[in-house]
Design goal:
The chain is α/β, with parallel strands linked by helices and 440 residues long. 35% of the residues lie in helices and 25% in strands. The chain has helices at 17-28, 32-37, 68-73, 88-99, 109-126, 142-149, 164-176, 180-189, 198-201, 204-218, 237-245, 309-328, 368-377, 408-419, and strands at 7-13, 40-47, 64-65, 79-82, 104-106, 130-131, 157-161, 228-229, 248-259, 264-275, 287-294, 298-305, 353-362, 383-389, 397-403, 406-407, 424-433. The strands form three sheets. It has a six-stranded parallel β-sheet with strand order 3-2-1-4-5-6, sandwiched between helices. Strands 8-10-9-7-11-12 form a six-stranded mixed β-sheet. The structure holds NADP nicotinamide-adenine-dinucleotide phosphate (NAP) and L-homoserine.
């Protein structure tokens, strides 16, 4: 830790999409770090190729340099985030940081895939951390889940969408009939695409991630030339339509298979037609989805944004916090960043809004529906839909209603009144209509 006490200074190699996102969220959350880590976590300097380029995140001119080594060597810098991409220079800088006793956090799957073994060993030898949650599936915490939460499992099959750019392109081609080139341009503008876009479009980026997952799950570094790698360039709008007619979607997926009878591991990345019922088939846009078939847990599917500034920064910062915990000796985080006991109180029923489904058994007589509607209106509840099933053999009719937005207090008061309303038989049945998009 830095001698100037209780400050951890972070140097960031690369101030592009991910570097700026990490800097931004470290600064925005500055007041929370001392509360949960007992130290200030301060992004201090960053390196770039061009000092002239405009940056969307505010940084002082003297915090930016083209000399990455000066950041690694800076005695004031405690930790390094390697967010510059590329392989050889990133590797040299990473090893240089290790040699100075500095842990490194990276999002660089190409580097890990090519030199992971050497880098992990060097980090271990130097007694420092090398953390890489952001290298696979952007904001999805797949590394932690695989290494920690699912530690008791073996994995005959892991598969999923591991590249946000190609999934974004395929989804928009399928849903809007948009052209490959137009969507690729949008993906670039959104910060999803690698500096070398062929990595995304030809399946290589997904292969890098699949190789990392294969290493974590099976302890083997599969070489990229041993992986079947296909991309998305040959997929046409016609193919996407034809797949839909077959009850499928076309997705670029990474597949990691292990045959436990001979311990052979196969890694592949290719487009597949996958039945629309599968979660991975319905994982759209920039989202990634990883399906893990574990021998103990069964199937676990994780989905979330797989590329872009904020989700990737979320993973980088999660690693940063873990590494800082190791430095400061804070053994566990009892709560999330923004949780403080004095801040939150329980919401009252009138603050909890939603729409409701009601089923009432009613005597089938003139004016009954009007009475029910009046009762609901008395609580400020308006009806969205009404349907009535006619009664048979003197049985009550079934009245099925749905409401517009109201709140828990109003609906519970209305239910109490409906129970006592003449012509209503038995207790009303009430369900909530749950649409997460309507919850603010
Ligand atoms: P980016 O936007 O192209 O940013 C790269 C940054 O590194 C730029 O600021 C660039 O400087 C700087 N840089 C590159 N080479 C350098 C060098 N030799 N010396 C000094 N600075 C150098 O890339 P990114 O999207 O943030 O990706 C960074 C890393 O994160 C890559 O390994 C990528 O695979 C990984 N990743 C990206 C995402 C994503 O959604 N974008 C998600 C997960 C992981 P200039 O700005 O001056 O060119
Ligand atoms: N270019 C990568 C993707 C970034 O589109 O998935 C996230 O690793």
């Amino acid at each position: 830790m830095n001698d100037s006490s209780k400050i951890i200074r972070v140097g960031i190699l690369g101030f592009g999409t991910v570097g700026q996102g990490t800097w931004k969220h470290l600064v925005e959350n500055a007041t929370f770090w001392p509360k949960i880590l007992g130290v200030d976590l301060i992004p201090t300097r960053a390196s770039v190729r061009s000092l002239e380029k405009a940056r969307s995140v505010k940084i002082l001119p003297d915090q930016l340099t083209t000399d990455s080594e000066s950041i690694v060597d800076d005695p004031e810098i405690d930790l390094v985030c390697e967010l510059m991409g590329g392989v050889e220079e990133a590797k040299e800088l990473t090893l240089r940081a290790f040699a100075q006793g500095k842990s490194v956090i990276t999002a660089n799957k190409a580097l890990i895939c090519e030199h992971g073994d050497e880098l992990f060993q060097a980090a271990e030898k130097a007694g420092v951390g090398y953390a890489f949650e952001a290298s696979v599936a952007g904001g999805i915490p797949i590394i932690k889940v695989l290494r920690e939460s699912l530690v008791s499992n073996e994995f005959p099959l892991i598969y999923g969408i591991l590249n946000g750019t190609s999934n974004y392109i395929l989804t928009r081609m399928e849903k809007e009939g948009a052209s490959f080139e137009d969507v690729l341009k949008d993906a670039r503008d959104l910060g999803y695409v690698e500096a070398d876009e062929a990595l995304d479009l030809d399946g290589v980026d997904a292969a890098h991630k699949a190789i990392i997952l294969a290493y974590l799950a099976h302890g083997i570094w599969v070489k990229i030339h041993e992986v079947t790698v296909e991309g998305i360039r040959q997929i046409s709008n016609e193919d996407l339509q034809a797949a839909e007619n077959l009850g499928c979607r076309i997705k670029l997926i990474g597949v990691i298979r292990r045959d436990f009878s001979n311990d052979h591991v196969a890694v592949a990345v290719h487009p597949v037609l996958i039945p629309v019922e599968e979660t991975i088939a319905r994982t759209d846009g920039v989202h990634n989805g990883v399906c893990l078939n574990g021998t103990v847990v069964g199937t676990v599917v994780l989905t979330g944004r797989g590329a872009g500034q904020d989700p990737t920064a979320s993973s980088v910062i999660s690693d940063l916090v873990d590494v800082v915990k190791g430095i400061t000796g804070v053994s566990s985080l009892p709560k999330l960043l923004h949780v403080s006991p004095e801040q939150c109180v329980s919401a009252s029923p009138e603050e909890i809004h939603g729409r409701f489904y009601l089923r009432l058994a009613v005597d089938d007589r003139t004016g009954q529906l009007a009475k029910v509607a009046e009762c609901l209106a008395g609580q400020g509840i308006s009806l969205a839909t009404v349907s009535q099933t006619p009664h048979e053999n003197d049985q009550p009719a079934s009245l099925i209603l749905t409401t517009h937005q109201t709140n828990e207090l109003s609906i519970s008061q209305a239910i109490e009144q409906l129970k006592n309303l003449p012509g209503v038989v038995g207790d009303p049945v009430l369900f909530r209509m749950f649409d997460p998009n309507e919850i603010s």
